[in-house]
């Protein structure tokens, strides 16, 4: 019995071995699977060389083009006027901004005028006798002398004798003393040099104003300037009068300005040149932060692509017969996101967007929008 069982087991093992061997032989003869070729879809663009405008981004704060810092040259009590001296108060050209009490100085002016009048009146008898030919003009001057008005200019002296006589009596020195006092009297009132608005007020009515004290600031709110720093390489290209596109930080409003001035010197520390952009708009306020785009140069026969499409060795990928290849290009200007290239022939098919892991010889195919996508884009 034992021998029979062992014989059966042996037969089963032999049959199993034969079947396993046949299976191995069958698997060995099967063809190996061929890995499918991976063809990446890429976005392409056809080169068409044109004239590229170089636009430099810049930014800065607005300041009023017409600005006056108000200082006192005299001392006295600040007297109120028709308008309050407060920030935001507007004034027309010629209106009084600040009026300082000048009653004491006014009395000194009137006293000096009176002395001049008396001095001229005292020499009239001598003029009638010794200089009858000039008596009439001095008599006319004396009759037109008005203490309530500005002192008129002395009559022109035609001879040395007349000059010596008038000067020797102290008339000329008295006249210039009066004019000096009158000039100082005018400084007790500060007149608006242009129509504008008060942006800073450091004194109020009744304040004792001292000589040299700052009183406030006055600006013209209609025209502003923005100072920007440009690379020295564009010093000879940037032109006065060039239009500039300006936007606010939120990109919700845009303005048109122009280059009003360009500094003649270069900053030794930053190697930049300062340009001033003039802009006028009713919505602008002093201190606003704006961004500017300056058109500084035009490059002919060039293209503009994303910076990440330019390889480290100044080459770009092109598509030839469904394969990627590289060609050399000449970069002439870099911005934050773009690069301007020359020496790329017209009609060359280049990548429009980067391809991860791209290499020369990679099999690619151009992206073709579906019909549904084209219809939807047409509807939009």
Number of domains: 4
Structural class: alpha+beta
Which band does the percent of strand residues land in? 35-45%
Q: Give me the count of strands.
A: 22
> In the CATH hierarchy, what is the class of the largest domain?
Mainly Beta
CATH architecture of the largest domain: Beta Barrel
Q: Tell me the name of the CATH homologous superfamily of the largest domain.
A: Efflux pump adaptor protein, beta barrel domain
Which strand order do you get reading across the main beta sheet? 3-12-15-14-13-16
Low-confidence region ranges: 374-380
Estimate percent helicity: 25-40%
Shape: elongated
Q: Determine Rg (CA atoms, Å).
A: 45 Å
Q: Count of helices?
A: 6
CATH fold field value of the largest domain: Elongation Factor Tu (Ef-tu), domain 3
Element-level helix/strand string:
HEEEEEEEHHHHEEEEEEEEEEEEEEEH
Average pLDDT reading: 86
Cα(first) to Cα(last) distance is: 91 Å
* Largest sheet data: 6 strands, antiparallel, barrel
Summarize the structure.
This is HlyD family efflux transporter periplasmic adaptor subunit. With 380 residues, this protein is an alpha+beta fold. 27% of the residues lie in helices and 36% in strands.
